[in-house]
Amino acid sequence: MGLRFVMRVRFAPSPTGALHIGGARAALYNWLLAHGPSEDGESGPVGRGTFVLRIEDTDRERSTEENVAQILDALTWLGLDWDEGPISQVGNTVRHQEALAGLLADGHAYHSTATAEDVKAYKEKHGADRGFRGEPEPNGAVRLHVPDAGYTSFEDLVRGEVSFPNASMDDPVIARADGSVLYNFAVAIDDLDSRITHVVRGEDHISNTPKQLLVFEALGAAAPRYAHLPLLHGPDGKKLSKRHGAASVQELRDAGYLPEAVNNYIALLGTGFAPDEEFFTMAEMAERFRLDRVSKSPAVFDEQKLRHMNGQHLRALSTEQLTERLEQFTGRSGLAGAVEISREKIQTLADFWPLAGFLFDGPADDPKAFAKVIGSDSGREALSQARAALVELEPFSVEAIEGALREVVERTGVKPGQVFQPVRVAIAGTTVSPGIFESVALLGRDRTIALIDRALAK
Known about the structure:
458 residues; alpha/beta; 12 strands; 45% helix
């Protein structure tokens, strides 16, 4: 048996805000690669690869400790644990300076005081497609030499071969005049030092890749392999944004989604999984995930489909497990009975309290529902008949309650809803609740009769 390939991947967010769904997708794909089969097809133990977390915090004005904390919190909630890090890019400043000095010393980089106006004038003289080439000067910003001929190319694991003509590329600035390095240079050095084998990120980074490849070439080092993921779109075909619903991981959590459902859904976005399968554990997703199956076309993030999948994941939990999640989400305790009778009607954790909160806090105040269902003579009469059937009922069980209320329906010759809905509005305050028989049983005889009397007294 040959030497096993050891994959090292990284997720490197900039802490300039909350972790958006697109970033979470990139983090998940890297995590799946680190936990999946080896490159030669041999299945290794979970954790065979290495997932490195790096915080690219060189934008000191927008990179805050609060934003770093948000990102770590989001990754932790999703269960995307990292093997190394979090590594601060700013913390590698000494190493960046050493590498920069080396490139200046061997002539791969040079100082230049050229301004944007100088670059514009150069292109006007030599042609808009001609990359800027400066002359070495004693001071100024640091630019990296780009060859005049040939191409800077790479085999993208999603998109295939991507090539940039060197003649059209400007000598990129890799450090400011004060010596502080810029993003593309720092990223290349950090990837090199972390021994990253695969860089998996959004396609908005494609234009950065040739600049980073030139840094590796100047250092005489092998570059990682690259894979650029298509951006996420909303159902309307436009780039995913807040107008499509939740835009960040925290917003999904606050909306009551389960982390396993979020992971499951975003893992399926354009990854070529079997179309007849959509419910996977993290281990199953890692086993199946392959970069060469990722579509080149933008994937559509549809929150309605996520809601459907989330409902599946909710119902896959035991009542005890779901109760624990809901008690943590709502900050309330003693929810087991209400969870048992509500679980089939909710798709997110946030759906639970509007549906079942009346069992704890009393009926909601919905005058329109009351007027429509109980406000008429027939509604009051049906509610009175239901009260009479329940007040002496023994045992006060779900089966007995259903039998008693259905007997009212048969005796009065009305439709079931004309009896059940007045009871529902009396106890819940609205026309939506868990099963009416189960709700009445959970409330108990005394509370149910008291709420019916309260409704009849209005």
